Amino acid sequence: MNQTNNYQLSQWDPEDRILRADFNSDNSKVDAALKNNAQAISDEIAARESADTAETEARTGAVATLTKELAKKGNCRIYCTTYTGTGDETRTFTFPAKPQFVIIDADGMVIFATQGASKALAFTSADGYKLPVTWSSSSMTITRNTLHPNYASTVYHLIALIQVDA
After folding, report:
1. Helix (H, G, I), strand (E, B) or coil at 26
2. Residue 151, pLDDT above cutoff 70
3. pTM: predicted TM-score of the whole model, two decimal places
4. Residue 141: closest CA among 165, 164, 119, 110
5. CB 54 within 8 A of CB 138
6. Residue 70: its H or E element
7. 72-105 burial, b for 16+ CB within 10 Å, e for fewer?
């Protein structure tokens, strides 16, 4: 009688005598192999669940750490708008919250204003200027001097970093 290569199960030739003991032995081998396979699958599932749990915990920790670090990076959001100049000597801008930093841009001129400063820096393609600026809780007023931040019919682009209450 021959046997299989992997589990040594009986393989009878036509002249072999078939015995119940051979069947019982084969059944025991199959049962043991099935049990080992089921255990290996169960162990693999447990290992993957453990790895998934560890990864979830690591990601949760990373998100918590990044959230904590992000909170240290400031309390601003970006506010964007446009306005068309009226030609008046001053221009007041009202924001949805306290502006921290304002940029105004139009036709080769850029103005930078920082919260609390009494002068806004203004640049053209050729020169730099300082424009008088005043602040209130949620507005900023720029006054014309050499450079005009409010030319009639000129479209200006305004970007502000707006304070977000903690």
Report:
1. helix
2. yes
3. 0.51
4. 119
5. no
6. helix 20-71
7. eeeebeebeeebebeeeeebebebebbbbebebe
Q: 156 has which bridge partners?
A: 83
Backbone phi and psi for residue 86, each to the nearest 5 degrees, phi listed first:
-110, -10
Collapse the DSSP code of 12 into the 3-class scheme (helix H, G, I; strand E, B; otherwise coil) and give the result. coil
Please say whether the beta carbons of 154 and 64 come within 8 A: no
Residue predicted with more confidence, 68 or 38: 38
3-state secondary structure of 90: strand
**How many angstroms separate the first and last alpha carbons of the chain?**
83
What is the separation of C-alpha 61 from the centre of its chain, rounded to a whole number of angstroms?
A: 15
| CB-side neighbour CA atoms (13 Å) of 96 | 12
Q: Is 56 left (phi over 0), alpha (psi -120 to 50) or beta?
A: alpha
Residue 1 CA to chain centroid, in angstroms? 67
Helix (H, G, I), strand (E, B) or coil at 163: strand
Residue-level pLDDT at 74 = 67
Torsion 39-41-47-52 (CA) sign: negative
Separation between Cα atoms, residue 147 and residue 41, nearest integer Å: 77
Token pair 């949760």 in the structure block, residue: 60
